[in-house]
Design goal:
single chain, DUF4406 domain-containing protein, Rossmann fold, globular, 3 helices
Length: 99
C-alpha cells in the first residue's frame, strides 16, 4: 500500500469543500497507482490559533517526506504552498500526480 500526500489549495474553502476534494483525490490516486492508498492526513483542523502560513507549510513538508505518492489537486499551481510542495516532491523523487 502506497502512502498518499494530498496537496490542495484551501484558502477560502469550507471544511466540507476541502474534504470532498480530498475524497476525489483519494479515489483518483488509487486508480492511477493501481492499488489502495494510505492517506497522510495533511488537513490540519486543530492548528494552533493564529498559526501562520509558514507553520502549515512546515508541517506539510514534514508529512510529504513520508509519502510514496503526492497528488496535486486542481488549482495547486496558483497556491504558494502547493507550488513549494510540488517543487519538493519533484526534487526528492516522490511520484507526483497532477490533476
Amino acid at each position: 500500500m502506497k502512502k498518499l500526500f494530498i496537496s490542495q489549495p484551501m484558502g477560502g474553502k469550507t471544511d466540507e469543500e476541502i474534504k470532498a476534494e480530498r475524497a476525489k483525490a483519494i479515489e483518483s490516486a488509487s486508480e492511477l497507482v493501481g492499488e489502495s492508498v494510505e492517506v497522510i492526513d495533511s488537513f490540519f483542523q486543530s492548528a494552533p490559533v493564529g498559526a501562520k502560513p509558514l507553520w502549515f507549510l512546515g508541517k506539510s513538508l514534514e508529512l510529504l517526506a513520508d509519502a510514496d505518492v503526492a497528488y496535486f489537486a486542481p488549482g495547486w499551481d496558483d497556491a504558494r504552498g502547493c507550488i513549494i510542495e510540488h517543487d519538493c516532491a519533484i526534487a526528492y523523487g516522490i511520484k507526483s500526480i497532477v490533476a
